[in-house]
Design brief:
By secondary structure, this protein is α/β, with parallel strands linked by helices. The chain contains 13 helices and 14 strands. Bound molecules: nicotinamide-adenine-dinucleotide.
């Protein structure tokens, strides 16, 4: 028996957009998902033109997400879309995700999940009431060697974790790029569209999720120093945080978009009382393992000595580099397995609860910075 492909729609991701095209490629990579419908821009004419560029059938190429929701809801179950990928600026995620989830469609939504914890709670409630699958594309979660690092922590190879340093270093907002009309910079520096966090929301959210995924540590309190170095910018472009984790571990989190010369330098270092680990997304096929009293070891993607989940997240033999698209595709594979209720597949992807924890983290960071960098309790309860 052949397994029917899942039917995907996209909201956002039209002409000149950034991440939508990555989602489409990632979703297509494993041949399990067909992109069949879209409302690809906030501008109806541009939405339709973008859909034509991508070969969407005219009757599934919608001028707006509301038109898509209305029309798809009326189709029989075996024809309508299975899920929507939401790749619009942050301010729109909540309304779109809530509407589609309430109508019974599965959701893939980019980060940060939404603007406020109240919205995040509502999305979690809708998911528990409707049973829809809700994935949040924290794509760094999908890297095989991130899964390997998580496995090694779970196996106790690091012992008790004492310290984590996570950095997301970028330099692309080191000038007032938003004043030139560059659209990705424009909305990311606007609190109404980006949310309460600038760099801390845009990339600090990835850093928080990476720590949580690999270590399982829970944030207890935050002391945050947020700065905007560009005069007149309304959101932080540089974030420096001290973190206390439940159980006594300590953390440092840096998220900056003014570090000239850095591109997408997400890196994490973790030390326990038995060993250390180090991973960088700009060199994602390598994981450094530093056991106490032994030589440092370099683990490489695709090798037989890796954990089962790291091997399952790999498509090529070692030495053929895999990177961003493949990791992104792994989030789609996990979500697709859950949508199919596939008992054989490993269902492993960031969910609406990870997204909600991320929103809480951004809020508490902004709260700490606004209170003159006071230690702020930041425990999150699902
Ligand atoms: N996971 C990642 O690594 C990653 C990377 C980049 C961006 N993102 C996230 O993805 C989202 C989009 O970011 P981007 O950089 O691609 O933005 P972008 O500005 O390049 O694209 C946004 C798209 O959404 C469309 N849009 C806006 N409102 C809409 C509406 N109401 N209906 C339909 N379309 C609408 C715009 O027309 C545009 O096509 C953001 O939430 C961002 O944080 C995630």
């Amino acid at each position: 028996m052949t397994t029917p492909k899942l039917r995907m729609a996209m909201i956002g991701g039209g002409r000149d957009a950034f991440i939508g095209a990555v989602h489409r490629k990632a979703a297509a990579l494993d041949g399990q998902i067909d992109f069949i419908a879209g409302a690809l821009s906030s501008n109806p004419d541009k939405a339709l033109a973008s859909g034509r560029d991508l070969g969407l059938p005219a009757d599934r190429n919608y001028p707006s997400w509301r038109a898509m929701l209305d029309a798809e809801s009326k189709l029989p179950r075996d024809k309508r879309i299975d899920f929507v990928s939401i790749v619009t600026p942050n301010d729109t995620h909540f309304e779109i995700a809530a509407a589609f989830a309430r109508a019974g469609f599965h959701i893939v939504c980019d980060k940060p999940l939404c603007h406020t914890s109240a919205q995040a709670r509502e999305l979690c409630d809708i998911v528990s009431q409707t049973g829809v699958v809700f994935a949040v594309t924290y794509n760094y979660f999908g890297y095989p060697l991130v899964k390997q690092a998580r496995h090694m922590v779970r196996q106790g190879l690091l012992g008790n974790i004492r310290k984590v340093i996570v950095e997301y270093n970028q330099g692309w907002l080191a000038t007032a790029l938003e004043k030139s009309g560059q659209k990705q910079a424009d909305w990311r520096t606007d609190p109404a569209r980006s949310g309460a966090g600038g760099a801390i929301g845009d990339i600090g959210s990835h850093a928080e999720q990476l720590v949580s995924t690999i270590t399982g540590l829970e944030v207890e309190a935050i002391c945050a120093d947020l700065t905007h170095f560009i005069p007149g910018r309304r959101l932080d472009d540089d974030a420096n945080l001290l973190i206390r984790f439940k159980g006594g571990a300590k953390g440092v989190l840096i998220a900056s978009q003014v570090e000239i010369g850095h591109e997408n330098d997400l890196r994490i270092r973790i030390w326990g009382d038995k060993a250390g680990l180090e991973w960088r997304q700009e060199n994602p096929n390598e994981l450094w393992y530093k056991p106490d009293g032994q030589p440092v070891q370099l683990l490489r993607r695709g090798n037989a000595y890796l954990s089962d989940d790291a091997k399952a997240a790999t498509r090529l033999p070692p030495g053929h580099p895999e990177a961003f698209f493949e990791a992104f595709a792994n989030v789609y594979l996990g979500a697709a397995a859950a949508m199919r209720k596939d008992p054989k597949a490993s269902i492993d992807f960031p969910t609406v609860y990870d997204g909600a924890r991320g929103v809480h983290f951004i809020e508490k960071t902004v709260e700490s910075a606004a209170s003159d960098r006071k230690w702020t309790s930041a425990q999150w309860k699902p």
